[in-house]
Every structure is written in structure tokens, then in C-alpha cells.
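Hi V.,

You were right to ask for the full record rather than a summary. Here it is.
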Amino acid sequence: MAHLVFVHGVNVRKNPQDDSYEEGEQRRDAAFRDIAFRGTDVTFYNPYWGEFGAPTTYQSLDLGGDQALGDLGGGGLFGDAVADIDEQSLSGSKLLACARDDFSATVNSLTVVLNEPNSEIYDPELAIELADYLLSLESNLAEEMEQSGGSRVSVPAWLSDHALTNDEQFLLRLDQEANYARGQEQVSLSIRGALAKAGWWLTDRAADVAGGAVANAARNLTPKLAVFLGDAFIYLNNESNPESPRFKIQKVVLDAIIKAAKAAKADGSPLILLGHSMGANILYDMLKSPEVIEAVEQELDAPFGADLFMTVGTQVGLFEELKLFGDKHASKPAMCEYWWHVYNEMDVLSFGASGIFEDVIQFECNTNANIINAHTAYFTSPVFQRRLNKRLGHLGIVS
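Predicted structure:
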């Protein structure tokens, strides 16, 4: 048994018109349960503080042009249905070039696309199969954890085959190699449909972003950045009265921490505190507050401790350098046994923490080659979840 408190980040809002928030929470919990905590019972605590955050629409976003600003609800990777794949769709070599440059990030990107629900591409079993193949290439997990977090693997020898000249050949060979790794004797001579469509989507859309459509990418990011700034400023307001957004946000998170800590104490199970984006900043700020810790310990009638503190895709390092946390000592919260910090180079809202804080272990994890969705792709990535499972196993948190 384990207990996991997940504090969400910016731009997360419940929508009375649909169940997108609830569905997203369920998918995230399922990924943790089925992959990261596989074989270990886990109870989730998901405090929702979005109702106290900033507005999600701003007049300043309307620049008067004809470019759509997009849906702030975070509807996922796919705005339209994926077109039929014709024989010319994968004749280029963009994906192959990406794989030869960074095999881990490329395969990881494919797993993220394959794990996106409500699309023609959705194939979670294939996503996990590719994730397992990628992790099987890591010869020494413990060494990679020390050196780079195991987020990259060497380019496999078969990628150097000069007979591979286009994306279709790359995807077919990748599919075959993943099957070989699983001990499958029969290997298809054609690419599975979902994998072909995932490759097409990456080359047709994500590769265009990476290849130079910077203005369009920046404009698509602007609404998300606006809400990020709003949520951050709302929280960082130093008002301490019970009517302030900061107080209300902390109260919601504090209640979840107390509930999880009591349950962990009762059954002697590990407690994990995980924050994504602004949620990580909130968690760090609270865990460094003597008043917050005192409140938890009064409820527990015992010292408060957590086995693991995780900050993912967050600005905690930047906020500390700007001294937005006040005069708190820049170090691992004392009641947490370990602090893991995860960033993604393609995530423009994630920053480093190593060298800024004491006793933090930093990992790189490239979850998606698409700059637009990199900030939200961590927890839907089977590769991220598989790697987390390995690390949790080393700590003895999962069996």
C-alpha cells in the first residue's frame, strides 16, 4: 500500500459543461496505478485548487487577428481526427532523423501519442510495449539513475543500418525490434495502423513545430502562459486572511496532506507528495512553512514525515532564484526523506533545481517532442511511468 498526494498545476479547471477534469484525473490515476505502482495498492488524494486560481479568459489575448487562440480547457493532443494514411505520408525521413539524434525522446513521443484517449490512434497496449522495449535497452539502471536519470539511451545498432532511409522503414523496424524483445516469433511485415498514424501525426504536426514554425507555436502557448502567470500571481499574493486565494489554495492542499498522512500512519505505508507545475511550487512553499507542518503534526499527534517529495515540470528553481519563497532555506523539506525533481527540455515551463537547492536529485525526462504539449505530457507517458516504477522499486515503495 502507498498513499500519493497529487497537487495539480496551472490551467486546470473543472468545466460544468463536460467531465474533462474528472476524466483527466481518472486517466492519470489509472496510469499511476497500472504502471508506476504496478503490483502495489495505492490510494490517491487529488486536491483541486483551480477554482481559486486566476481567470482563464483575458481581453489582452485578443490581438485582433484571425488566428484562433484555441481552447483553454486542455482538450489533449488532437484537435481533429487523424486523416487516412496514404502511401506518401511516411515517405520522408523527419522521424528517422529525430530517432538517430535522440532515440529515447522519439520513441517516448510515440508512446505519448499512442496513449492519448479519444483519438483514432489510441492504443495503450502498443504504447506500453514500446515503453518496455525502450527501457529494455538500458543496460544499467542504477548507473543511469546516478548519471542522467536514465532518460536517454544509446542509439540502437539497427538504427545505423543504411538501408533505413525513410520513416515508414524506421517504424516497421521499430515495431519488429519491439516484438523481438518480447520474444514474439511472428513479426508482421507491415506497420500496425496505430503506430503508422502516430508517426504520421508527429511528422506532420510536431516536427513542423520543431522545424521552424516558431511564431505559431509561441502564439498557441500564449493563452496557457497567461493562465500560468495568473495562477502564480494569485498564489504569491501574501495575504494571509481566510478570504484570500492563497489561504484557500493552501487549505485545500493541507486537508489532502493531513488525510493522506493519517492513512499512511495508520497502515504504516509510504507517503508520496507530488506536485506538477505550480502545484510543486505550492507544495514546496507549504512544506517549508513551520505553521503548515505544525498544523499537520497537531492532527497526527505525531511527527510528520514523507517518504518522497516529487516536483515535476515546475518553476521551483526559478522561483527560488527570484526569492519568491521569501527567506526560506533553499533545501529539501526536512520531513521528506527524498526529493526528486523532474524536468523536460521541451517543456518551456519547467526549470532546473540542481545547484539551487540542497539535497535534491534531478532527472531529465523527455516526454514529448511537441513543444505545445510537453508541459502536460509527463503523466500520460508510459515511459515516464515505467521509469518511475523502477525508481520507486529501488526505494522499496513498490514491490
